[in-house]
Amino acid sequence: MEDWQNQFESWKVRRINRRNTIFFLGHSLILSILLFSCSNSPNNTQKQANFSTDNTASANTSSNNTSKKVVRIVRSKQLTALAVLEKQGTLEKRLESLGYKVEWPEFAAGPQQLEALNAGGLDIASTAESPPVFSQAAGTPLVYLAANSSDGQAVSLLVPVNSPVKNFQDLKGKKIAFQKASIGHYLTVRAVEKEGIKLADVESVFLAPPDANAAFSQGKVDAWFIWEPFVTRNVQNKVGRVLIDGSGGLRDTNNFYTTNRKFYQEKPEVIKVFLEELQKAQVWARNHPKEIAQLLTSATQLDVPTLEKMHSKYDFALVPINEEVINKQQEVADKWLNLGLIPKKVNVRDGFLTPEQYTEITPKEVLAQK
């Protein structure tokens, strides 16, 4: 009797489940019919047409964007003509007509730029004299495109505002921070030579600018060789004071715009346009101190009056690459080799072009300086 009841209960459950399944299937069918009817209403049909059109437009836009070739030029956050060039947008307009889009990636310092240049993450770099030498020593097929003024006053050795240090000699046995292979590193070497002491007489602390800034403000280093606008910000905030700068013959080298050999060979028209527009930005920046200050206040995080005062620290000039420039760069390379900081002798001429090649890409006003 108990077995029969269990079978009967099981039969009821199966029947209820079957009935529920039929009900839900019917309900789903009705719902699908209603949704199908709604989807074919005139309004919804129009929405679908619009969506399709939007997708097509989006695809076309994407196709147009991807069809443009990208040129990546380092972003300058200093009071420089390169920063002016980005802000004014003239380069983008000229290169757009050639089918190029310009991007402006940021890097902490010159060595990081040239690492990216070698890895294909940057096309045109802007550095001081030493990063290209270290890059060449590492085997990078680097090309020097143009030389820029040295702007020695724009690089300074900071000490804490209350530091007892009065001159460079007082830094013997002290910690000096700078980015390795940067202008700060090179000027530390130059200052040591000028004072008749050895580089080992000071403790070199290799730090990228953001890390050095933190270490300096926290009193973890005794001095910091750095460029603008870090110098002015620290002075204004009463964190540091300038002990020496690169003027007075301490800085004896140029800044450089560089690329890799592949980019130079494949895109000479881009390089030519870049240097032409850069030269225009140099002239404009030199002749418009107030306007450049207004243009770059957000990029430098300094106010207009301060930037106007800083204007005199920059020469805003491209200079022709000649034998004097090449020979000085070779002296820099030999100096780093003698200090044991690069692994092999570098022939810097491997990265320089011929006079005829420079004539093809260098603005006429710059060539006329010869």
Secondary-structure map with pairings?
Layout: H1 2-39, H2 42-67, E1 69-72, H3 81-88, H4 90-96, E2 100-103, H5 110-119, E3 125-127, H6 130-137, E4 142-148, E5 155-160, E6 175-178, H7 183-195, E7 203-206, H8 209-217, E8 223-227, H9 230-236, E9 240-245, E10 255-260, H10 261-266, H11 268-287, H12 289-300, H13 304-310, E11 318-319, H14 323-338, H15 355-361, H16 364-367
Helix pairs in contact: 3-11, 4-11, 5-6, 12-13
Describe the structure.
This protein is an alpha/beta fold. 54% of the residues lie in helices and 14% in strands. It is built from 16 helices and eleven strands. The protein has helices at residues 2-39, 42-67, 81-88, 90-96, 110-119, 130-137, 183-195, 209-217, 230-236, 261-266, 268-287, 289-300, 304-310, 323-338, 355-361, 364-367; strands at 69-72, 100-103, 125-127, 142-148, 155-160, 175-178, 203-206, 223-227, 240-245, 255-260, 318-319. The strands form three sheets. The chain has a five-stranded mixed sheet with strand order 7-6-8-5-9. Strand 6 (175-178), helix 7 (183-195) and strand 7 form a beta-alpha-beta unit. Residues 1-65 have low confidence and may be disordered.
Compact description:
The chain has 16 helices and eleven strands. The termini are far apart. It is α/β, with parallel strands linked by helices.
